């Protein structure tokens, strides 16, 4: 099967060839034909499987079949993405594949001045890629109206729901014309995702490139049982001994991401953190340094990592296991892209043991255990309450129990701070 077999027009085929692609991926083979026929679609595909091209190519082809001038502030295509990074990646895909079609496009998101975005809108754009917040801001100010939208794409709908964008999405949908094509894409199919698609799509074609909870076959997955306070040492040891060329590390919180990046930098490993508290300018510069290889390790939170679309990430490290098993699928899909092999290392402390169990239940895979010098029998054997994060009540009891009688430790100056649980690190 080649792209030519999908009846792709010559200007798009030339752009595809320049990128070095010859064979469509499964999601592209499944999605492109019905989209060229004008059908609504719900596509289930993991990240890294070519889903962006699966909707960009047919949209560009259908636009080219009926060329018309766009009016100021009234795009023909609207794509909603949950994060700034993902919006930028989608915009780049439209530019890459549409280089011979001369459509005008714009990516808008918060965290930057709106002036340049408003100026471009006033000149008219054919394709608008946006995050919900900035789009609604500009709609409310009268700079954008959606009555001319012919194609509406909601990408990573599952993450949209996780991030609480459902009300914003429904407000935006209510401003669309009655007649338009809708395309929804998600890495996982949950009850909430299905209900939203059913309410907003018109007799959609449902395509699924692979089971929604299955991880990519090209990724070698390993779990490391380790105490929380040994994770830094384990990460350093792996980075010094393993052939880890370009590494994406996931931390649960913004503060933890900063701390891990600082620790690595102090140990002369080029690294930086990316998360929601960073300005857009900082995030863009960090991504450019990671993409160019000036940064070896990028430490990220789940939300900030959306849109990281780099083919040669050799390793994903789950410094903290996600509390939602679906996020594990999203995370490790950042490696093993474009036919390459990849590696996913997961650190599991005792308090994360239940998270690992949920991941293995969802993926229906037993993750291979990796022996190492920081191995924790306690983490491996944790069950029941010991296999879950401390609740606030249990955490208070633990701190009280561990506080020395009278507030003093023999031979040491008394201190006023509480002693935290030894297997937990403040984050």
TrEMBL record:
Segments for region (Disordered): 367-427
The DEAD-box RNA helicase Q domain, residue ranges: 1-29
InterPro entries per record: DEAD/DEAH_box_helicase_dom, DEAD/DEAH_RhlB, DEAD_box_RNA_helicase, Helicase_ATP-bd, Helicase_C-like, P-loop_NTPase, RNA_helicase_DEAD_Q_motif
A GO MF term: nucleic acid binding
Motif (Q motif): 1-29
Annotated Helicase ATP-binding domain residues: 32-207
Keywords: ATP-binding, Helicase, Hydrolase, Nucleotide-binding
Ion transport as UniProt keyword: no
Segments forming domain Helicase C-terminal: 218-378
Any one annotated GO CC term: cytosol
PANTHER family listed in its UniProt record: ATP-DEPENDENT RNA HELICASE RHLE, ATP-DEPENDENT RNA HELICASE RHLE-RELATED
Keyword ATP-binding: yes
Name of the protein in question: ATP-dependent RNA helicase, putative
């Amino acid at each position: 099967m080649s792209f030519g077999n999908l009846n792709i027009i010559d200007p798009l085929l030339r752009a595809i060839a320049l990128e070095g692609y010859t064979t469509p991926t499964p999601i592209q083979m499944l999605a492109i034909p019905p989209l060229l026929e004008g059908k609504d679609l719900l596509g289930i595909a993991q990240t890294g499987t070519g889903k962006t091209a699966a909707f960009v190519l047919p949209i560009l082809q259908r636009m080219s079949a009926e060329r018309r001038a766009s009016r100021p502030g009234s795009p023909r295509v609207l794509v909603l993405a949950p994060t700034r990074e993902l919006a930028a990646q989608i915009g780049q895909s439209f530019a890459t594949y549409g280089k011979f079609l001369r459509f005008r496009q714009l990516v808008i998101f918060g965290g930057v001045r709106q002036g340049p975005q408003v100026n471009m809108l006033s000149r008219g754009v054919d394709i608008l890629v946006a995050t919900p917040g900035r789009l609604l801001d500009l709609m409310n100010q009268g700079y954008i109206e959606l009555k001319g939208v012919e194609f509406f794409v909601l990408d990573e709908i599952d993450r949209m729901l996780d991030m609480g964008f459902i009300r914003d999405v429904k407000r935006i949908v209510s401003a669309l014309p009655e007649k338009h094509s809708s395309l929804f894409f998600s890495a996982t199919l949950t009850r909430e995702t299905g209900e939203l698609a059913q309410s907003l799509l018109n007799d959609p074609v449902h395509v699924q490139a692979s089971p929604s909870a299955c991880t990519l076959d090209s990724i070698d997955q390993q779990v490391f049982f380790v105490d929380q306070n040994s994770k830094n040492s384990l990460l350093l040891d792996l980075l010094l001994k393993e052939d880890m060329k370009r590494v994406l590390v996931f931390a649960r919180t913004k503060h933890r991401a900063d701390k891990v990046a600082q620790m690595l930098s102090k140990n002369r490993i080029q690294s930086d953190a990316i998360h929601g508290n960073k300005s857009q300018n900082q995030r863009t510069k960090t991504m450019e340094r990671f993409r160019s290889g000036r940064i070896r390790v990028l430490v990220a939170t789940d939300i900030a990592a959306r849109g990281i679309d780099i083919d040669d990430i050799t390793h994903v490290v789950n410094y903290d296991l996600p509390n939602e098993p679906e996020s594990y699928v999203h995370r490790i899909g950042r490696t093993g892209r474009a036919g390459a092999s990849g590696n996913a290392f997961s650190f599991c402390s005792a308090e994360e043991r239940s998270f690992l169990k949920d991941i293995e239940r969802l993926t229906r895979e037993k993750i291979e255990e990796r022996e190492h010098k920081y191995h924790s029998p306690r983490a491996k054997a944790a069950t029941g309450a010991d296999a879950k994060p401390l609740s606030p009540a249990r955490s208070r009891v633990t701190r009280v129990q561990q506080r020395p009688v009278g507030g003093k430790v023999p031979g040491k100056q008394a201190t006023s701070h509480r002693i935290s649980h030894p297997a937990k690190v403040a984050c």
